[in-house]
Specification:
3 domains; Immunoglobulin-like; four-stranded antiparallel sheet; 13% helix; five-stranded antiparallel sheet; MHC_I-like_Ag-recog_sf; 22 strands; glycoprotein; Murine Class I Major Histocompatibility Complex, H2-DB, Chain A, domain 1; Major histocompatibility complex class I-related protein; transmembrane helix; mainly beta; immunity
Amino acid sequence: MSCMGQTQFVEVTYLDSQPIQRYDSNTERMRPLTPWINQALDQYYWTWESDMGYLKDFLEKLQELHPTVPQNHHNQSTDHTLQCIEGCKLTADGEKIEIHQDALDGKEMKGEEFHSERMYLYGNCIHWLNRYLDMRPQRKELPIVKVTHQGVINNLQALTCQAYGFYPKEISASWRKDGEIFNQTNSSMHIAPNSDGTFNARLSIQINPKERKLYRCHVEHVSSSPSVEVTTHMLNVNETLFNCSICNFYPKDIDATWKRDEENWEHGTFHGDTIRNWDGTYCTWISTEINPMEEYHYFCYVDHEGLQNVLRIEGDKFQ
């Protein structure tokens, strides 16, 4: 809300960190921000949501409770900004939690009498939360995983495991050293939303650069079934071996290939045998030899019926 000459009101609705609809008093329209909500709701809903007549009552009540907001704001030379977060959360065990947070000109406001005036939270929030969840497609997007490293500082090097483009939000990532889980006190995974509704995650550690080849990033996500790991082996100055290991897949049929800059790469490529595990799943591998001094990017592609999308992992030739 701006109180200098003209009042502006903006409202954005989020579902699990994804913006799904937005109202702006400049256009006086509520508009969809995702294709699925636009398809699920008819024109009557958007017309009804665009009728923001309750805004006047809301501002009048705010001015009664907080007289620091000028009644005749058109004659003021100072802008005033009201920020409100209101919503609800439905936990896995069915608990319903209401969320309230308000700030006036950047300072947090407290007072249950103001919260009690919220029409949206009179049971409607949980109702609409369930409706939006029913409308939203049950999508699964496979994470794209990449490991990067930075220069050596104070005899330490930062390794970062990046997973991006995945959905839903829940994901597990860990660093392994010689196959064992490696935990570092100041290391934590950070997850953030993307504009398309998917998520990205980062997990960084500080290591001794001489031991870098001992570390692997392990990622688990509900969208994936087979586990895929790419390792790098320096053969000599002009030769590097990429090995793409695929495990825990079923049925046995699987398609694994190497690509150089998105084109099929067969030169120096070797396919390993497919081995049956004790639990009935399978493992295999595919490797390729490359020149690390050439300006190309190499990717291992894995296609299997247990995957919703083809898995794509980039090899790090300087690992």
